[in-house]
Design a protein that fits this description.
about 170 residues; mainly alpha; Four Helix Bundle (Hemerythrin (Met), subunit A); three-stranded mixed sheet; 6 helices; about 50% helix; about 10% strand
Length: about 170
């Protein structure tokens, strides 16, 4: 079995539950945040949507500098509506899936680096980047988004098992 096939089965499952979570963001609370140090809901939802596309960067480039010297820094996604964030998520998820599906095992084992201002923050094989920096990172923020939903009395979808709001997976 190819590494990409092994990864994509997990990717598909996690993207489905991430989308279910994004479908529930309340448009009347996009600027809400649970604490002064927390991201507002619109930025957190935007981050989940953009993370769905980081597989493309991982496959198609050897590195990503989110504050490249002499160039404008990366501009984060801030959701303006539920529909907008879902469209971004769907586009990014589909593009990542295509890029990953087309990657050979050899390519997935080549190193990829994340940089800030020309300085390397991390460097590891692409396959490890996909698992940790892309997928696990998305799962982490999806869980945060679930807490935001709970704190706003919005039903939290089931993910790995029943939630307090949904007695079944699905």
């Amino acid at each position: 079995m190819k590494l990409s096939d092994l990864y994509l089965s997990e990717f598909d499952q996690e993207m489905a539950t991430a989308r279910k979570t994004l479908e529930r963001i309340p448009e009347d609370k996009l600027s809400w945040k649970p604490h002064e140090k927390s991201m507002p809901l619109n930025r957190l939802a935007g981050h989940v949507a953009e993370l769905a596309g980081w597989g493309v960067q991982t496959i198609e480039r050897d590195s990503l500098d989110f504050m490249p010297p002499g160039q404008p820094p990366y501009q984060p996604t801030v959701a303006t509506s539920r529909q907008q964030v879902l469209e971004i998520f769907d586009k990014n998820r589909d593009a990542s899936r295509r890029a990953i599906a087309g990657a050979s095992d050899e390519h997935l084992m080549k190193n990829w680096s994340l940089l800030r201002g020309g300085q390397t923050l991390l460097s590891m094989p692409r396959f490890a980047v996909l698992r940790s920096f892309c997928l696990n990172h998305l799962i982490h923020h999806r869980a945060q988004l679930g807490v935001y939903l709970r704190l706003n009395n919005i039903p939290v979808p089931s993910v790995y098992g029943p939630s307090a709001d949904e007695g079944t997976l699905g």
